[in-house]
């Protein structure tokens, strides 16, 4: 009986690893140019009005961090080398590492362009998870040339938090049963889900470590932060049952417009493409996702339907995606016939913020996009738009697909 219970407990154990490519943009730049190795390096725009997209560990000790105005970063670290970001290279290496991980592990979740979760439950019985992860780390380094850190634990929460302790280019394991004691001494800012406002509120209450957070009664946390309070209480005790979501590049969002009256008005079609693309890019940013593939669909009045797609560097930028959508449309629309339907779809979606495009924007541009998104979130997707998308309305029936 005791043996049966022990085996059942063993069977219920999960083994989850979180992998994070160390200072990803910086590492890619150093791979391209070995002279940057060991030097204080900033990836971002080249003007004083630009913002920092990524920075090396050598600059962080001076207080430099991502999303900081470039002018301030260079004031803090005047000897830093500034390199303009290369979206094509970052997307390429992200896909290289994705392929290595996907071909090696049983189940993988791509959390962002440079982060992965893998579920190794069951692997422990045959190979040993520790040995498996060390070999995977070496394989990634060999095939991509990039350093990567990882942590192995019983769930996604612990593995993600522990990966920060493994950096740079290291590894860490948190044994089953030690989740709560591992988290206890850490500052509350280390806990995923605790933002600046929540952190300030908790610190005003004297809550500075996860240990203290874990000891607050659940009803009090619920009164303080609602449902999020219950979730944080659970996480503070090291509990996270969330599953690994298998990675699939088929995930997509898109929309189509079927016109009540077929049209040959190219200006109108362009304005519709702009409107549709803006709506979808807002949805991407709202969901904190990036797309790596754009598809445009066109149906002529004789019901012939054609489509073209383009694999692109990961992005959620209006400017970048509008350009790609227009390029694809001009390649498709070659018959000069009446058009019945047009559609836009973004696929190859991954979790991620707009950080990957920060080197394209000035600080003012970033704030402008944030303000526009805030207005859309409050008043609706169509609350603010480009002038070109405000065109003479022709009869159409909308058919959104998400």
UniProtKB/TrEMBL annotation:
Its cofactor is Mg(2+). The keyword Metal-binding applies. Its main location: cytoplasm. Residues 16-195 form the UmuC domain. The active site is at 115. Mg(2+) binds at residues 20, 114. Keywords: Cytoplasm, DNA damage, DNA repair, DNA replication, DNA-binding, DNA-directed DNA polymerase, Magnesium, Metal-binding, Mutator protein, Nucleotidyltransferase, Transferase. It catalyses: DNA(n) + a 2'-deoxyribonucleoside 5'-triphosphate = DNA(n+1) + diphosphate. One of its GO terms (biological process) is DNA repair. The keyword Lipid metabolism does not apply. The record marks 25 as: Substrate discrimination. Binds 2 magnesium ions per subunit. Its EC number is 2.7.7.7. GO terms for cellular component: cytosol. It is found in: Cytoplasm. GO terms for molecular function: damaged DNA binding; DNA-directed DNA polymerase activity; magnesium ion binding. Monomer. Belongs to the DNA polymerase type-Y family. Poorly processive, error-prone DNA polymerase involved in untargeted mutagenesis. Copies undamaged DNA at stalled replication forks, which arise in vivo from mismatched or misaligned primer ends. These misaligned primers can be extended by PolIV. Exhibits no 3'-5' exonuclease (proofreading) activity. May be involved in translesional synthesis, in conjunction with the beta clamp from PolIII. This is DNA polymerase IV. It comes from Sphingobacterium lactis. The lineage of its organism: Bacteria, Pseudomonadati, Bacteroidota, Sphingobacteriia, Sphingobacteriales. The gene is dinB.
